[in-house]
Write a structure and sequence with these properties.
single chain, four-stranded mixed beta sheet, three-stranded mixed beta sheet, 13 helices, globular
Length: about 325
């Protein structure tokens, strides 16, 4: 069994322990939620709504206190705090979770989902729920998925119309083995770079491009350097809301139900916000002079057929077959 390495967040452990991940004031249970996002992000707004709905369902008996913008450390450090029960909840991308829940790698495999509707059909199915449950073996409780859209390529010097245009280009990818293989399968040279360093890496030519969803491309201001945005939509990697399994188990069945209901409402609210943010981001980058390209996606799908077949006979391959039939 693998765990996130402890030690990097000792000071934070002391801080959160003083606050308590899940505390009780009079008859009110207080859950502390930390994340790394800006307060204008759709997921943060959805978390605020989660707190409002939890207050409603519990009739004021449960509340959420949110610590945004990495106040409690990095994403990894906050997951460590969840594992030891010193923080109640946080948000992570599904891609880095593949090192702990191997089946999560399917989200980094290109063109597993036909479209947005198919994507959410899978996440809301028993299969989607079982993927969340896989995190329990590393002391985490998956509460639900938030929409993070689809990832598409953006480049600095030349546009990408077909997979052939990616040949030899250094493309920044998430720190995920499957994400690296995806770009390689499409002909690019995958180059992991931290998000905070990516603007400079694009500016200095360390990488020729990257891939992300429209709001991230816009809000990061990467469009100022990489002026070509190709909406190939190769992967759909959701955000995952995690709770500390220890904190979850400390709640009564009724309290767990209240939190689950509030989470479900939060997910639906965030999906609406995300669609609006995506539309606004695309309009904004077009207005700024970005060339937005709508390629023939079948060319990209054809380029990853061998990559898909490489999963045949594996647990992930079996899941992909189930998804294809949905």
């Amino acid at each position: 069994m693998r765990y996130f390495r402890l030690g990097a967040c000792t000071a934070l452990v002391v801080l959160i322990s003083m606050l308590s991940a899940c505390s009780k004031t009079d008859d009110t249970v207080i859950l502390r939620l930390g994340h790394s996002l800006d307060t204008q992000h759709t997921v943060h707004k959805a978390m605020v709504y989660l707190g409002q709905r939890l207050d409603f369902y519990s009739e004021g008996k449960m509340k959420v206190i949110i610590y945004p913008s990495s106040q409690l450390g990095s994403e990894r450090e906050m997951v460590e705090l969840l594992q030891i029960g010193s923080l109640a909840m946080t948000k992570v991308s599904a891609s880095p979770l593949e090192g702990f829940v191997p089946e999560m790698q399917l989200f980094s495999i290109p063109y597993v989902f036909r479209d947005r509707q198919h994507f959410w059909t899978v996440l809301n199915s028993e299969l989607g729920k079982s993927l969340l449950q896989g995190s329990e073996k590393v002391r985490l409780k998956g509460l639900g998925y938030y929409d993070a859209g689809s990832r598409s390529f953006y480049t600095t010097d030349t546009p990408v119309h077909t997979p052939a245009d990616l040949k030899g280009k250094k493309i920044r990818v998430l720190n995920s083995p499957t994400a690296v293989k995806t770009v390689q399968a499409l002909g690019g040279a995958a180059t992991p770079v931290s998000w905070g360093e990516l603007y400079t890496a694009l500016q200095q030519g360390v990488v020729d491009g990257a891939e992300n969803n429209p709001p991230s491309y816009f809000l990061s201001r990467h469009y100022e350097i990489s002026r070509y945005y190709t909406l190939d939509e190769h992967t759909s990697v959701p955000d995952v809301m995690l709770a500390s399994l220890a904190v979850w188990n400390s709640l009564t069945p009724e309290q767990q139900q209240w939190l689950s209901l509030a989470m479900a409402d939060s997910v639906e609210y965030q999906k609406q916000l995300w669609q609006e943010a995506s539309d606004e981001a695309l309009a904004a980058v077009k207005a700024a002079g970005v060339e937005v390209i709508y390629p023939n996606k079948q060319l990209f799908r054809d380029a990853v057929v061998d990559f898909h077949q490489s999963f045949a006979g594996t647990p992930v391959g079996d899941i992909m077959q189930q998804i294809e039939k949905m």
